[in-house]
Amino acid sequence: MNVETLAGLLVLVPGVVFLGLAVTWLLGWNGQERILARVTMITYSLLTLGVAALTVIFWQRGLMVLTVSFGNWFEVGHYGFPLVLLFDRLSLPLAGVTIFLVGIVGSFSVRYLHRDPGYFRFFLLLHLFGFGALLLFTAASLDLLVAGWELVGITSVLLIGFFQHRKEPVRNALRVFGTYRVADVFMLTGVFLTHHWFGTGLWQELFPGTWPDNGHALHGAGAGVVCLLLILAACGKSSQGPFSGWLPRAMEGPTPSSAVFYGAISVHAGAYLLLRIQPLIAESWLATGFLIFVGVTTAFLATLIHRTCADAKTSLAYASMTQLGIIFTEVGMGWTTLALVHTVGHAVARTAQFLRAPSMLHDYHRLHSAAGGKLAETGSHYDSFVPKPLQHWMYTLGVERGCYDALLERFVLTPVRYLSSLIGRLEPADWAEKWRAKKAEREAGEIRVNKSGKDEVHV
Amino acid sequence: MTDTHAINGHGLAEDPKVHLVHLVDHAAHLLPTQGPIGVFVHHNTLHAFQHKMFDEAVAEASKLYGRQPYLTEAAFRAELKRGRILPADVEAILEREEEGEILPNRLSRRQLRRLLLVPGLREFDARTLPWLLDEGGWLERFRDDLGSEARHALMHDRPGALWKACLAKVPPGSATVPVIDRPRDAVLLATGVDVDEVVNPVLIRLCGAFLDQGIAYWSMPFREEGLLAASRRLLLAKMTFYPMGLEGLHKVLKDHESRKLSAVEVVMEMLECLDVPRERWGKVIEAKLLTLPGWAGLIRMLENQPHLAPHERLPCSLMEFLALRLTLDAAAVINAVKGPELLKEMKNHVEDPAKVRLGEVAELFEVAQLVGLPSHELREMGPEMFERFIGEVKACNDLERRRIFQKAYERRHERQILIPLRKHRAMPPLRVKGDRVAAQVFFCIDEREESIRRHLEEVDPLVETFGAAGFFGVAVDYCGLDDPHGVALCPVVVTPGHEVTEQPVAEHAHLHDVRQSRRRIWAKMAHGNFISTRTMMRGWVSTVTLGFFSIFPLAFRVLSPLTYAKLMKALNKQFLPEPRTELTFMRDDAEGLAATEGLLRGFSIQEKVDRVAGVLGGAGLSKGMARLVVFLGHGSTSLNNPYESAYCCGACGGYSGGPNARLFATMANHPQVRAGLKERGVLIPEDTWFVGGYHDTCSDEVELFDLDRMPEDHAADLARLKSSLDKARARSAHERTRRFATAGWIADAEGGLRHVQERSEHLGEPRPEYGHCTNAVAIVGRRETTRGLFLDRRSFLVSYDAGQDLENQALARLLGAVIPVCGGISLEYYFSTVDNTGYGSGTKLPHNITGLMGVMNGYQGDILTGLPLQTVEIHEPVRILFVVETTPERLMSVVRANPELTEFVENRWIRISCLDPDDGEIRVYRGQGVFEVLEGEEEPLPVATSSVEWYQGHREHLPLARIDGNHPVQVEVRVA
Description:
The structure holds two protein chains of two kinds. Chain A is mainly alpha-helical. Chain A contains 19 helices and four strands. Chain A folds into two domains: 3-359, no CATH class; 431-459, no CATH class. In chain A, the strands form two sheets. In chain A, strands 1-2 form a two-stranded antiparallel sheet. Chain A has a two-stranded antiparallel ribbon with strand order 3-4. In chain A, helix 1 (3-26) runs antiparallel to helix 4, helix 8 runs parallel beside helix 12 and helix 12 (285-306) packs across helix 17. The longest helix of chain A has 32 residues, at 167-198. Chain A is globular and about 65 Å long. The N and C termini of chain A lie far apart (66 Å). Chain B is of the alpha/beta class. Chain B has six domains: 73-177 and 352-406, no CATH class; 183-345, no CATH class; 439-505 and 580-773, no CATH class; 507-575, no CATH class; 774-787 and 795-934; 940-976, no CATH class. Chain B has 38 helices and 23 strands. The N and C termini of chain B lie far apart (69 Å). The chains are: A mainly alpha, B alpha/beta.
């Protein structure tokens, strides 16, 4: 097997497994746990071996870049949608971490979700997510990245709403979905403008050279605009700045999905996008300033909130958000290698913590007794440095989760709702009236005989 | 009545504040009584209703909380189909009830009820009904499962005509529509705004921060002033924004603050602000507290028993919680209805009368088909007769049908247990007579110990086992070597009067110091790591540098939990020296006797004698002791399980009972104690040695203590017992794996043991063990009666010998502890099973630990009480069936002397029966002092040569069987 095939398989296999499972399910297979578990474990064991082999090959041959082309999906005039994968020193580590962590979380979930009615759904989504994330990290073009980006987004939303019989998970999933869609507007505009102004979406044409030492081929005001749009898109995925409110809501899903999405892979996708376009960011002081501002403020706010969170999962969510803010700042400062190391380290460490969240009582109890019944006080330096009233205010801000929801409701949702109700008035109202009248009749249970002589409810 | 009395009485009733306190106290009884989850104590979920009859109580609670009283009708029908309930059971229950005529010569009450139960109404509700009529074929043809008579009667009728006739019989406006109590429902109906959705998130965040025991990095400022004061200060902070639904809250709070209103005053003002008339205060307060019953209940628990807080005691007050809730509610309601005046005009019906009526029509339509009442007859039926007919139909409503089904369900269970038990009792006993027994082993009465006891006796027929409540009569406040402080190891109803500490023996004191200092260092590092990965700057450094390396423990732990655990154990052994220890439990020194306050240090000789005699005598072991008598306490270790404590020993207050067993053995070995026992008629032979030990019901690990103190000549006895115990625990573990689908089918006992050990160490295992799941029976009697009987780990086994207890004193002591404990466990499982998301805590998978106090769903929800789905999923919700080996007269004399037992027995919260110690006759209690002799033979008693032969290849509940190693015949045909 040559290197290209190996690399291509790494991305394709989870997708094929997903398709295979989905099709057999649609054909009537009832999704026995044992088979599903075995398929998952074998798939990810092989993938882990594969990615390890690829890493060794890269290292031995001193490869910097490897592209795998599947040709164009379609072509229209000058435009072709290239199906090309790119493995370099940025995407390979992230692909490796993805494969490894999805495998670990899959193994964890085999036990964790045993007997859950959503077992099959969970694994189906996990495979689709694996495929999406790998596609996102290894896409050689902005266009293909969007495909992975959306797959990650939709699986994320479906897993937040995993417990579909309760109201809260579904509602929060919708909220996250909404946030993603808004961020996607920036993403799609960015992609469109890139093509419009620069005529290509391929990373290697936009940023010639090898990561992390590549330059960029984009100039002019257009470059700055595209850069800002993509930064905003990244903020959406990584829960930063204006889109920072959704992460705690994502904690409604089962613990392993919280781990792999919000501790590990999904939230770091934004950081990956920024690392890709970093040369462009460095060019524009506006983009640099904006990114650093967003990163620093989010990190500060999130750490503030984290310190007041009294439940295991929300606390971890804000801790993640804090580190993501720092990673954003690192990219803004141009410390790309550090940001990559940070991303990988953070993803792994946070996954481990999420998976241990249900064991927290046990762990804490052990810790507490080993410490002799008294753990060191936390938050003491803040006690000594910050004046009391300010401390109090900071605490309030933390408990109120930065007032994010209140502000959003006041300044975004209400105006939008108002606007849409204005637009709604333009609709003719009589069909709704008719529908209501029909419904009332049907609910009264009146019957009449229809033309064919059969009894039916008055409809 | 004197004048002062009158004034006082009058004044009390008038003062609205005092009145409010009463109302809150009253409403508080309805809240769950589950404390912080670290110590989980099983109790009757409906404890507040225990003074009522069971059926009455579940119905009332179901209405109050909106939860299920029994399994659903559909579930019962499935059991009927499966053969778990037989038609004969339903018949027997109906026959116990009164007969009457409904339609002359046509339909009697029993006939009607029989039809309503089987095949019963088809499922429908207000939302599905229009569809069923439209598309579901209800109006196209009659039901196809009707009896021949009914089908014949309806031969010339059409469903449409019948529907019309039914519609005419139930005139519009005749339906009774329930009225609502909660202002929130009224607001929701009138405006579409759910006030709870505005208020709950804020309230939950505040309560979470207030109650936190150490998860948050910063604790809530001013929380020592109480929830209301601290929250007020927080909410009054400048430069923060409330949700829009709480606009105006700031002003109200400021006003309260400036007038320094107390909680009671706030409640009063807010009730007035919400325009609640005084006579409805009670109802509204109930409704408000039951909106978030978990949080309210926890606050109430901590208000009454502040020491339950695991780490930090807090000034909790339910009144403050209510005041905060009402303040937020009032703000939200005013915002929703845009001004208080609108509040008065709101509708107060939850349900649409038209929909309710339609439901009644459909019910009549179904019954008419079942009974075979064609449309013309229905139309012509006189109003008086129709009233009676429909009255009977309504009397046998969903609740009533489920009540009957429940009884039938329990009747079959009763017969499946009692008939084989009687047969087994009538056969020759399996115990080996003659030789002195090799060892006697005491286990806890816990039903999970049934299998290891049975296997132990199978492995070594010369071993005898006993069951006694797992604290073995020694109620102590115990502080182990590694524990930061003492905990009460006894049933929760007992307050220990004695304290016992474990300390290193003098020559090992230095090892102890090394051990503790290393543990402190480890704690410091682990805690530092915990914090540093979560904060900002330290998190930066640590995730960049060390983050990646957590990949190794993570992968290792998830992929091979057992190996990881073994490695950790080896490392611990390497670095943490284990000093030999002893228990400080003597109190015959001058200092101990002189102490006048606090807990008594240890026990005096007399106290020891009392305790040892109590346990040995109660179990009927006053003589004939083996050379080795072992006491095994039990507990359970698991990860991924906030409910860990629920799996530990209930008789030790949710902790492990190892120390109690160790203490008991040490006491019984004491020469002076033995001398004292002799005077009390308990004869311990010179060569008998007691050993304490511990059994982990999750990993099936067994550990014996203080073996170095044992006389050397017992080494052979010990070796024999140890090897039997090892075999027995492996076999028992193997038997447990039959319930776990993830285990597959394991071939050998050793494999079973490995599997359960792995479960206990698995990070992702939500079912480390099944806990008390499937418990259904408690047998109080001699082991001879049950020895060799396969009870499927479903029966508590209490050793008791009526022949040695002529005064019934031991029985009174045993039942006084056993009925509340086993009854509580059984009822907690019952309620968590019949309504898992209401009385129980639903699936564990999204559970999120909050404040180290409890779990909630997702990121802001109510504290969940009761048991999770993964704990009860294979449970059969029957009330526990007690079988006491004594006569009805003796049993009832004990029960009637104890009000708590009377309540359990007479109000039917448990089922109870007597097994005659002489002739083996079984009499079942049917209430009102009536015992009914058990008759009938329909349930067989199969015989198998070993337990494994009987259970191999089965995951479902198994019927009783006789396990007789010498039995020549292979296993008989099994009953489905």
